Amino acid sequence: xxxxxxxxxxxxxxxxxxxxxxxxxxxxxxxxxxxxxxxxxxxxxxxxxxxxxxxxxxxxxxxxxxxxxxxxxxxxxxxxxxxxxxxxxxxxxxxxxxxxxxxxxxxxxxxxxxxxxxxxxxxxxxxxxxxxxxxxxxxxxxxxxxxxxxxxxxxxxxxxxxxxxxxxxxxxxxxxxxxxxxxxxxxxxxxxxxxxxxxxxxxxxxxxxxxxxxxxxxxxxxxxxxxxxxxxxxxxxxxxxxxxxxxxxxxxxxxxxxxxxxxxxxxxxxxxxxxxxxxxxxxxxxxxxxxxxxxxxxxxxxxxxxxxxxxxxxxxxxxxxxxxxxxxxxxxxxxxxxxxxxxxxxxxxxxxxxxxxxxxxxxxxxxxxxxxxxxxxxxxxxxxxxxxxxxxxxxxxxxxxxxxxxxxxxxxxxxxxxxxx
Length: 421
Fold this sequence. Notes:
Number of strands: 11
Shape: elongated
Strand content: 5-15%
Structural class: alpha+beta
Order of helices and strands: HEEEEEHEEEEHHHHHHHHHHEEHHHHH
Helix content: 40-55%
Distance between the termini: 18 Å
Largest sheet: 7 strands, mixed
């Protein structure tokens, strides 16, 4: 038995509910089981029940055993003092709040044993996606409703990180956009190094030179630790410029070049290339956040963010190392990654901050206009007949896999609930 199953039983009232009797012999009628709370505090909120002749509205807590109330230390948590009903699988101990016994409903004799057996068999499957063999029995409407929910959850999680960052940086949206975009340029391999770069090169300093391409590159490459050597004339120029700017702005010690990872990366994704692309974007759009919120046409956002890198970086992938062929802009996959993982979440965060739905709509429109991602997770859904048409779909499938399938949270997933019905 696990609490996830009990939450499902209570939420969908999957038990014999004709004549419910509590542990103290009072009768119970459920009008509404409540809203499932996935945060801290009681499991269900705003429930409505009738105990004998009195109607109650409030919170419901779910446990396997009544005594779990004490094991979880709820007796010391004020947020549990307003619980109106304790729902348990096994009632092994009377629980009190301020010397009053909590009304308790025991479920073990009310639930069809076959339902738990079906759930147990489902959850113990060795398949990575537990519903793989049955998902074809569901309608596209049932599947798409969960994908919509998963996408919104993913955007909410990403935007929450941005809003937390905003709070820590005095509500400076341009600064937070700089930090968010920079981390994105590192992908998973170098994101920590890019984050550290934004900490030792504050946007307040960087924005003073963004009008000048060479000064922008000098600060970014210098604080990244790439200007210790002078392998060619251009690196020597940047080093001289950086030494001047570093003294002028009293900058902290740069990173070491050894902090940056090159292993298993294609030259197009070398940190030197990514820093040059970040420099080009910031130089071209010095007020990047302002540009994002004031540009309503998605094609304008996409076209004007895909800027040319500096002349040197069109011919090199590291200092002193020439490219085999000239390139002007970042690759299409890298650019789409920027739109998906930075631009859309920034717009969602601003939508939540201002309570303006149009920015959320714009973020969704961006995801619908970008090609679907193709990676190890999205490819797992292809054999099941669930294919991504756009980044909206692929982001939803990634969220579904990471937050539900891998964690075996089938009973919190609309698809899993439909199958278990």
